[in-house]
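Troubleshooting: if your tokenizer reports a length mismatch, compare against these two reference records.
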Amino acid sequence: MMSPLRKLVPAMALTAVMAGCSAKLPLRSYPDFYDPSIKRVAVLPFSNKTAASDAGRIVASRLAEALRMNGTYRLASPGGPPAATAPAPAQALITGTVHEYATSSAIQGYYSDYYSPYYGPYYPEWPYTPYRYGPFYRRHSSYWGYGGVRFYLDTRNAGHVAVSVRMTTEDGKVLYDTQSPVQVTISSAGSPPRFSPREALARAVELAVDKLVERLAVTPVTVKIDSKKALRTAVARQDGQWRYADKFSADDEKMYVVLALPPVANHNNFLLEIHRKDGSGALARQEVTWSRDRSTMGVEFSPNKLYAAGGEGKYTVTFYSQGKKVLKETFSIRPK
């Protein structure tokens, strides 16, 4: 009978192999509607459908502040601070509605704990708070001291926010609409809870604003990719399929470095460099821009020219994103 350990080893090896096939790809995530010509936006006061009279103003100002810090756009009045001179007109307007802006607090139950008797007179340990009442002490028949039971209130505080936004151009063209509100609830439970109701609400507003910025502006992200499929070398493309290869001849005029990246890489620029595996100087390099309309991209290089510059042997193609080395692939070029 196979031992449990022997059964576990293959599974651990498979997990290690699978983990080794992934790489982290730093990117800038662009909104679907992204237009580099839109450089200045204005965040208008949001309408308010809640009982809190200042909810629209608070959420709109937080969003304007977050967009200003993000840097994708310049904020025009009224979302930005007053300008010393007349501000340039906004190229896009952001409007919104706050549908929910509220706090809640509820007692979920209570519990108690008991600690052993001790020597000496009684001194109060726990002052009264709304979440901890007592201590209530039960005297023991023993003459040498007291034990105690502490009672706690288990309370849950929460902040709730729901907001929808729309971004339009000057002439009324809709660039983005949330369709349904972005809803966020931040809660904290305990005795006492980590956050007060107002603190939970403030954190809910921050998270809702972060989600909106991700939809409206360019934001940094990191995604995992399959390193075995994201960067490969090929000799040609035939019948809609790449003919992958890692060995080329000095008389080959063309080879391809094939990229397979996720749609979120749309609009991102990448750098490919080829150098001898045992050398440091780049023999060839190309910058490419990814489009979400494709599943793969073949970048052309010349084995003939690489051989003339570096001779016979092994070469490495390195893939850079955001200035960082992400992937490497090795291939070889043999004489004619």
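Reference record two:
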Amino acid sequence: MILNKSGIFEGAVKVTDDRGASAREAFQINVSTRTWQVTWEQKRVTEDWDGYLKQGESWTYSHEPGIEARLMEVNATLTLTMDMLPHQMPQDNFTLRLVVPGSGWDVESTTSQENVTKAPTAYIERDGMNPVPTESGTYQEDYAEDLLAFILDNAAARFGQGNWTWQVTADEADPDFFVDWDGADPDEGNDWKLEVEFVILVPRISEVFE
């Protein structure tokens, strides 16, 4: 008899001696459901990528953030390296795009300068992606893994689950006119860096013994 889940199990034991006499005894086993305490821990997770793109080129990256956690906020900043030489002006124009198909979220932002002394940037931000658990609680489940799946499968708190795809596109690398006698483009593209911070809530599950 394998007792790998809660419930009431019935069986019988039969004993036979060497003379053929036997006795049979029925039994019942009650396997109680385990009790768990769930608390939530807030964590900040950062990721960053960088590269160089010429005009018309794109960079794409896909991942699944916040696995085994509840996503709460995301703050993404795309920063371009400033063009400092006069013949490289004006600053280049890039687009940052994010697609989260599982949540129907598709958003993009183009780079701009706050002022002439700061590098061009583009931002994608979102908070309140999912409800904040008001307090810790107790649950009954046979296994911690099953409880974790139940918590994360809450239909009202699944925003952001699944694949996230980031895309950086070099729309314009100005100027395009030729200033050198050899006909070289003075500004073919730009270096960029994408920094993303996620705020997540991680469920901490511990067994309660009564």
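Descriptive notes for reference record two:
- DSSP finds one helix and eleven strands in the chain.
- The first strand starts at residue 7 and ends at 16.
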